[in-house]
Amino acid sequence: MLSIKNLHAGIDEKKILKGINLEIKPGEVHAIMGPNGSGKSTLASVLAGREDYEVTDGTVEFAGKDLLELSPEERAGEGLFLAFQYPVEIPGLSTTNFIKTAVNEVRKYRGEEALDAVAFLKLMKEKMAQTNIDQTLLSRSLNEGFSGGEKKRNEVFQMAMLQPKLAILDETDSGLDIDAIRIVANGVNKLRSKDNAVLLVTHYQRLLDYIVPDFVHVLYNGRIVKSGTKELALELEERGYDFIKSENVEA
Amino acid sequence: MQNELSAIEKTVLTDYKYGFVTEIEADEAPPGLNEDTIRFISAKKNEPEWMLEWRLKAYNHWLKMSEPTWANIKYEKINYQDIIYYSAPKQKKKVNSLDEIDPELRKTFEKLGISLDEQKRLSGVAIDAVIDSVSIGTTFKEQLGELGIIFCSISEAIQEHPELVKKYIGSVVPITDNYFSALNSAVFSDGSFCYIPKGVRCPMELSTYFRINAEGTGQFERTLLIADEGSYVSYLEGCTAPIRDENQLHAAVVELIAMENAEIKYSTVQNWYPGDKDGVGGIYNFVTKRGICQGAHAKISWTQVETGSSITWKYPSVILKGDYSVGEFYSVAVTNNHQQADTGTKMMHLGKNTRSRIVSKGISAGVSNNSYRGLVHVGKNAANARNFSQCDSLLLGDKCGAHTFPYIEVKNNTAVVEHEATTSKIGEDQIFYCNQRGIDTETAVALIINGFAKEVMNQLPMEFAVEAQKLLAISLEGSVG
Ligand SMILES: Nc1ncnc2c1ncn2[C@@H]1O[C@H](COP(=O)(O)OP(=O)(O)OP(=O)(O)O)[C@@H](O)[C@H]1O
Ligand SMILES: [Mg+2]
């Protein structure tokens, strides 16, 4: 579903991603861990099509298409979803109205009819129950004045509403209380199917207790320097990143 | 970053949808302004002597005045001798009913989305349609008449209700008030007149649609609205003009009078031609709008959505004379390309326990300039006056300007005056967030600015809110993305 080959990207003169290779198949859950500043969010942004970053080398194929050729909204239409590490606030725009626009724009891209008010409400109700989100949150302005945890829940709710093929979650577990982590995990697990894939960026092994990944990768200094299974996450939790860093002293 | 910014800066001209010209023969005064021009206009309208005298007084006063320069706007000096002060579409004969309106004119309004056909019209809205210097028809007059409501053109009011016009015209905006209002008083050609009798709640939206059509003309409309004790009216005006290279002057005066316990809600959706992307052409919109809360517990609320005109200079104001009276000003002003707006309000607290609320949302894009200018005055007898002002500016790109000039004069120490102001930019991260959810940049900008302007848009009558939202989006089309 997603095939990243030798991806180099940066901003201005700064090189951030220095040759990422990653293969994600339908049905898989991949976790990416790594120290602060290693390039995790950059990778997520580049995949989502943020123009600030310049791709200098490499290819990315998504669902049979050259991902790098598509605009951010086309990528969303193709089924790529990014739960942001720092969701933005849009004052005055109701969360519900925003999500309704998003759902219908994506449907339009796929040549589907827009959902009418009734159908949309039904979908909302279903997903609200699933992700345990407070209704009053959805009638407020998008993310405005939301607590850190509420913003993350809102991301998960949007993911549930959009049912993406590939969901990238950038530290969606950070700042969440234990119950909320379960809810996020639950949301992701509900999305899991043989056709969908998930890329989780996280610092904590705890999330992986709830969402068991098929693969764990360590991103360090713009490269994936280690890949393994769930056990790798446990090892990192125990030993920290030092052993990785010492193994990868830059030449 | 670089990429996105240059995209934001890239301003493209939106097609102005209302830029067509109607080919219709006009009855015009020769260009230029002198006493004869005024006599010509007055004679055309078959006005009584007192009206002509009033006009001439205004003209003579105007001659002694000079054009104001304090606003934060720049334009070439206007040559008042080049302007045509009277232009009326030639109608075959006097029309006695709406059915007799020239089909060409009827079509013009239909193209603008305004149907003069009472059956087809939203049943909740009565319309007075004004083209260049004259009103061509008013809908729903009879139904309104049954309630004692007078809704007609000001020319007709001068003929039919001279006592009301004589009593109130110039009572809120005196002819000596300012340069443009003096000019308007001398040469005003048409506009709407409305009187709501005691205790009557006007059952429909009243609305005037102003259209400039003829070349080289100025439009000088005059609107007078009186809400007698305990009455209520909601009134809306809309405006458009053809695309032309020349600048055309629009200098209107609107006067509102709210008696005890009366409420007037006055909404404007102003979409005069804004000029092209290089700043050529467009309407100079120099307007004086003022209301007085004459009696206790009266309320006047101005709501404006200003998207058009190359220059907008207007400060809809409220004189809060009656105790416990309330004044409100809700404004969204959008400037794009080379547009300039200097707009705001004056709240004059004279009575006790008077309250006012100002919510101004300025949106600037392109190389435009958008200024809020407001005065809150609390007189020495205005015990317990309250004012709250909120002025927010939103910038698209970094070549445009937003300015706030709040003036506060307080002469009574029991007054509470609060002012808040913010300036923000449409964030690339906001747009990217929307893009990531499948929403293209154009739609994202529309969502963001409508969110920004929501508090004001919510004040508009339902029938127009949707239109106004679209208009906001259209005015900024191409300014981001
Ligand atoms: N817009 C930018 N401008 C300048 N430098 C940037 C920008 N975006 C990222 N960087 C730099 O690139 C590096 C990688 O950042 P990134 O946000 O991808 O790290 P991360 O792995 O997500 O870190 P964290 O775990 O703290 O979220 C950092 O050194 C960061 O400062
Ligand atoms: Mg990060």
UniProtKB/TrEMBL annotation, chain A:
<dbReference type="InterPro" id="IPR027417">
    <property type="entry name" value="P-loop_NTPase"/>
</dbReference>
<dbReference type="GO" id="GO:0005524">
    <property type="term" value="F:ATP binding"/>
</dbReference>
<dbReference type="GO" id="GO:0016887">
    <property type="term" value="F:ATP hydrolysis activity"/>
</dbReference>
<keyword id="KW-0067">ATP-binding</keyword>
<feature type="domain" description="ABC transporter">
    <location>
        <begin position="2"/>
        <end position="246"/>
    </location>
</feature>
<dbReference type="InterPro" id="IPR010230">
    <property type="entry name" value="FeS-cluster_ATPase_SufC"/>
</dbReference>
<dbReference type="InterPro" id="IPR003439">
    <property type="entry name" value="ABC_transporter-like_ATP-bd"/>
</dbReference>
<dbReference type="InterPro" id="IPR003593">
    <property type="entry name" value="AAA+_ATPase"/>
</dbReference>
<protein>
    <submittedName>
        <fullName>ABC transporter ATP-binding protein</fullName>
    </submittedName>
</protein>
<dbReference type="Pfam" id="PF00005">
    <property type="entry name" value="ABC_tran"/>
</dbReference>
<comment type="similarity">
    <text>Belongs to the ABC transporter superfamily. Ycf16 family.</text>
</comment>
<keyword id="KW-0547">Nucleotide-binding</keyword>
TrEMBL record, chain B:
<feature type="domain" description="SUF system FeS cluster assembly SufBD core">
    <location>
        <begin position="210"/>
        <end position="452"/>
    </location>
</feature>
<dbReference type="Pfam" id="PF19295">
    <property type="entry name" value="SufBD_N"/>
</dbReference>
<dbReference type="InterPro" id="IPR055346">
    <property type="entry name" value="Fe-S_cluster_assembly_SufBD"/>
</dbReference>
<protein>
    <submittedName>
        <fullName>Fe-S cluster assembly protein SufB</fullName>
    </submittedName>
</protein>
<feature type="domain" description="SUF system FeS cluster assembly SufBD N-terminal">
    <location>
        <begin position="45"/>
        <end position="202"/>
    </location>
</feature>
<dbReference type="Pfam" id="PF01458">
    <property type="entry name" value="SUFBD_core"/>
</dbReference>
<dbReference type="InterPro" id="IPR037284">
    <property type="entry name" value="SUF_FeS_clus_asmbl_SufBD_sf"/>
</dbReference>
<comment type="similarity">
    <text>Belongs to the iron-sulfur cluster assembly SufBD family.</text>
</comment>
<dbReference type="GO" id="GO:0016226">
    <property type="term" value="P:iron-sulfur cluster assembly"/>
</dbReference>
<dbReference type="InterPro" id="IPR010231">
    <property type="entry name" value="SUF_FeS_clus_asmbl_SufB"/>
</dbReference>
<dbReference type="InterPro" id="IPR045595">
    <property type="entry name" value="SufBD_N"/>
</dbReference>
<dbReference type="InterPro" id="IPR000825">
    <property type="entry name" value="SUF_FeS_clus_asmbl_SufBD_core"/>
</dbReference>
